[in-house]
From TrEMBL:
SUPFAM superfamilies: Clavaminate synthase-like. Keywords: Dioxygenase, Iron, Metal-binding, Oxidoreductase. One of its GO terms (molecular function) is 2-oxoglutarate-dependent dioxygenase activity. Pfam families: TauD. This is TauD/TfdA-like domain-containing protein. PANTHER family: ALPHA-KETOGLUTARATE-DEPENDENT SULFONATE DIOXYGENASE. One of its GO terms (cellular component) is cytoplasm. Belongs to the TfdA dioxygenase family.
Length: 358
């Protein structure tokens, strides 16, 4: 049957739409990055001494559970994304929060695991103030291998614009998908807690972040299985990350470390128990033979990855800041946008306590 007029007009519309998209894409690329001062900086000569243990008290311990300084404003709107984790918030400026408000932010992040703040001026307040705010939640980790901001090694820069394929290479170049569940820098002795991540340039569609609740992942297990896991410890390693950076001629600012952490940890403020393993950095279970370790970790990674009923997808709009608790969640970038589209984001990663066994 010959195509009808309706079919034909649909084809024309599709052609026009794809031409418009191409044009938008070209315009976006030609424009250059919106925040060139935050482009990733790699200096192979940059070296830092080993990370030292420091005294840590979670500021959320002192927070008012009612959170009047965070959520008390007349314009504040709160929208829970799912029952277990994720809350979208508008009508609050993180940059304007008092010390008490920031403590409440830490508490709310622990309770909801991931907070998505819209319309923030945070990206425009300058590196010093951004660092000062993030320091509320602990000493900021200087990443050993990733791009940082020139003069401000505390920033971890996430950047793609088609000229750099390192993200895919890191995940493995022959994979079906690029989902890579992980908790940030879990190889450190003092692992990160309340973590801030904000977008500077994002694709029109896609480029979101998946999060999974490690608390709910733990809660789903049978009491018998939970009992078996409690008391176990796992090795978390920075070695692969450092080897990858060296092989590409990138910086290794500190020699890679390995830490042993409890497989189930307890949050110092909420007391919740959470699985603490992640495919990105956990390598083996202490005291298990290789096959036993691989078997158990594979089960846990599958369980975490498949639990869509305790996942969220955080989306970005200009001005979005996502705050998450790295002690209670794992996350993965979503690599679903075209290679030549720019995505530029920055993370500040305060380190919290040495994990408390459950
Ligand atoms: Fe990450």
């Amino acid at each position: 049957m010959a195509p009808s007029v309706a079919d034909h007009s649909q084809n024309t519309t599709e052609t026009v739409t794809s031409e418009v998209l191409k044009l938008q894409l070209n315009n976006a690329q030609n424009k250059g990055p919106s925040y060139p001062a935050y482009l990733p900086h790699f200096d192979v000569n940059e070296k830092f001494p080993p990370t030292e243990i420091f005294e840590f008290t979670d500021p959320a311990l002192k927070a008012d559970p009612k959170k009047p300084n965070l959520l008390g404003g007349a314009d504040v709107k709160v929208n829970h994304l799912t029952p277990y984790l994720g809350t979208e918030i508008s009508g609050v400026q993180i940059s304007q929060l008092s010390k008490e408000g920031l403590a409440e932010l830490g508490l709310y992040t622990a309770e909801r695991k991931v907070l998505v703040f819209r319309d923030q001026d945070f990206k425009d307040i300058g590196p010093e103030r951004q660092i000062e705010i993030a320091k509320t939640f602990g000493k900021i980790q200087i990443h050993p291998t990733s791009g940082n901001v020139k003069g401000y090694p505390e920033f971890h820069v996430v950047y793609r614009d088609g000229s750099d394929s390192s993200f895919r290479e890191y995940n493995g170049s022959n994979r079906i998908n690029n989902t890579q569940w992980h908790s940030d820098i879990s190889y450190e002795k003092q692992t990160p807690g309340t973590t801030l991540f904000w977008i500077l340039d994002q694709p029109e569609t896609g480029g979101s972040t998946l999060f999974s609740s490690q608390v709910e992942a733990y809660n789903r297990l049978s009491p018998e299985f939970q009992k078996r896991l409690e008391g176990l410890k796992a090795v978390h390693s920075a070695v692969y990350q450092a080897d990858f950076a060296r092989a590409r001629g990138g910086p290794v600012r500190r020699e890679p470390v390995e830490s042993i952490h409890p497989l189930v940890r307890r949050h110092p403020v909420t007391g919740e128990k959470a699985l603490y393993v992640n495919q990105g950095f956990t390598r083996s279970i202490v005291g298990f033979k290789d096959e036993e370790s691989e078997y158990l970790l594979k089960f846990l990674y599958d369980h975490i990855a498949k639990g869509a009923d305790f996942h969220i997808r955080a989306t970005y709009q200009p001005g979005t800041v996502v705050v998450w608790d790295n002690r209670l969640t794992v996350h993965s970038a979503v690599d679903d946008f075209a290679d030549n589209v720019r995505r530029h984001a920055v993370r500040l990663t305060p380190q919290a306590e040495i994990p408390i066994p459950a």
